[in-house]
Automatic annotation (TrEMBL):
Protein name: diacetyl reductase [(S)-acetoin forming]
Keywords attached to this entry: NAD, Oxidoreductase
EC numbers for this chain: 1.1.1.304
Reactions it catalyzes: 2,5-dichlorocyclohexa-2,5-dien-1,4-diol + NAD(+) = 2,5-dichlorohydroquinone + NADH + H(+); (S)-acetoin + NAD(+) = diacetyl + NADH + H(+)
Record bears the keyword Ribosomal protein: no
InterPro entries: 23BDH, NAD(P)-bd_dom_sf, Sc_DH/Rdtase_CS, SDR_fam
Organism: Sphingobium terrigena
PANTHER family associated with the record: 3-OXOACYL-[ACYL-CARRIER-PROTEIN] REDUCTASE (PTHR42760:SF133), SHORT-CHAIN DEHYDROGENASES/REDUCTASES FAMILY MEMBER (PTHR42760)
Active site residues per record: Y161
Family: Belongs to the short-chain dehydrogenases/reductases (SDR) family.
Any one biological process term the GO annotation gives: acetoin catabolic process
Pfam family, one: adh_short_C2
Superkingdom field: Bacteria
Gene3D superfamilies: NAD(P)-binding Rossmann-like Domain (3.40.50.720)
Amino acid sequence: MTTGKKVAIVTGAGQGIGLAIAVRLSREGFAIGCLDYNAETAEAAADAIIATGGEALAVKVDVAQRDDVFKAVDAVVQRFGRLDVIVNNAGLGPTTPIEEITPEIYHKVFDVNVGGTYWGIQAALKHFKARKPEKAGDIVGKIINASSQAGQVGNPDLAVYGATKFAIRGITQTAAKDLAPLGITSNAYCPGIVRTPMMEGIAQKVADENGQTLEWGLQQWAKNVTLGRISEPEDVAACVSFLAGPDSDYMTGQALIIDGGMVFN
């Protein structure tokens, strides 16, 4: 089945930021490939989009496995007939004090965060390159990668996660230069502290240790944000929507910070 819509693939679409991105891009008129390591949450995301009149396909994928990513991207293109945007959103964010980093943690986080970005780009390129720009400046495909506020500055206890997010900024810039002649842009988004299941779990632990509520726990992080609140996933999705849409066609190699005012460049 092919669609007349543009098509976007979102990795890690089963929950949190990825789910918000998938829903937002569906509202913007994209058919969505909902890729996630958890097949059930991928299906739930696709079902939610379809229930609101959108088009979506759920695909289980381990983004650390190159062949897995290629097969998943091919499945989405086979279903919808094209690919316009890939959002390499899936990632891991464990707390890793320097002295506690093990080879296993290092390899796992880099394989998912950095490897998943490489493989997502490569898998998308095959389909982007099937369309040729008619003239200089025409855009035939967009790569959007998940960096982080922690990819802009070093944060305590995030030596591994932060390193992967710094790496993704570098990959994004290099891809922008390498792929511009093909009509392909490459940009990144850098969220700060976002209300996701993972973040709520961390905040709840802090709250429990202090006999306080979840909201109190979240507020401890909000103190570091200029705008006075932590981000909702929809805040990040709005930034990605801009990067996926035509208003960002003359932008490439950039990493947009959407953190409420934690980092100023």
